[in-house]
Amino acid sequence: MALTAQQLLPRTPERADPVVPFPQLRHLGPQWYATVMGTAVLATAGTALPYRSPVLHVALTAAWVLAALVLLVLLAARALHWRHHRDQARAHLLDPAVAPFYGCLAMAVLAVGGGAATVGQDVLGPATALGVASVLWGAGTVLALLAAAVVPYLMVVRHRIEGVSAASPVWLLPLVAPMVSAALGPQLMGHLPQGQARTAMLLTCYALFGLSLLATLLILPLVLARLLVHGPLPLPLTPTLFLVLGPLGQSTTAVNQLADVAPGAIGATYAHGFQAFAVVYGVPVLGFALLWLALAVAMVVRGARAGMPFAMTWWGFTFPVGTCVTGAAGLARHTGLDALLWLATGLFLLLVAAWTVTAFRTVRGLLSGALLAGPRPARPAPG
């Protein structure tokens, strides 16, 4: 049998697909930083309450340590993600449903720093804890300002958003990050020299407060309009309704925290005004937060009856509720009203329950690989 020239030539080996390191990290998005936020807020919210016991202190310290460890792991994992899966990381930035979660990075850093200034002192020592809190507050504030500027810019020039029907509570994430900086800045103010340094820090925190508040007031009507015109959110996104509580509770926390340190940072006239503003602003906003909480709970119950699946959006049940705990506790401190303290306690119990369920489901999904798997391919249409 004769052989052709093609058969006599040596075969070129087929090229194998390149092996990409860490394939399990390909779909690790910025939304995973919400696990750090939701865990760290347990420590922040617990220390805001006036209850003290050795068991509670150990539990709050353990929550902060866990949050710090998870933050370190996620920072390393996300660095590997950007190193080996840069195409997917860029796709996340260009996805209007994922890009707002970059605000979670800033808030995760800030939340761990805030816990270092309180319960972290027993683990790190006062001096080291203060240094860690200062560094993380500075880094978190820079990241918060970047998120608040870059994500809306991408939404305007790169993302394609089709009308009000695409509005989502997730849009609030990069905008509430500066508010977290404003609420945690007062922890460091007492360690600054008296005079210009403290005044500058106080007014910087109020500027961050205003930046976040005004931006939130622009987005929140779009979210409400989307619900009223287009109906409930898709089931996996239903927990994101709790994200609206974030700027409400965090802004109430911020004005109360700033009112505590104002007398040592600015003149008596302005200090008294800031203390009055904490109550005049905080009480109505907390009232609206409770109204929204009732609406969000009703929608979640409706979604649960319809088979709402577990997703990373469930972490929205944690951090926003924690901000309402610290906000109500701050108002209770300034008004002396026991009802506000009872409200803060009830919200803290809700936070603990939500964190327990969400953390358990997250660990189970992580061990099974379901939470790190890529999106499911769309089913072909019949026929």
How would you describe the overall organization of this protein?
The chain is built from 14 helices and no strands. The chain is an all-alpha fold. It is globular, with a radius of gyration of 24 Å. The N and C termini lie far apart (48 Å).
Could you report the average pLDDT, rounded to the nearest whole number?
91
> Sheet with the most strands?
none
The amount of beta strand, in percent, is: under 5%
How much helix is in the residues?
A: 55-70%
Radius of gyration: 24 Å
How many helices? The count is: 14
Task: Give structural attributes.
383 residues, mainly alpha, 14 helices, disordered N terminus, disordered C terminus
At a glance:
With about 375 residues, the protein is mainly alpha-helical.
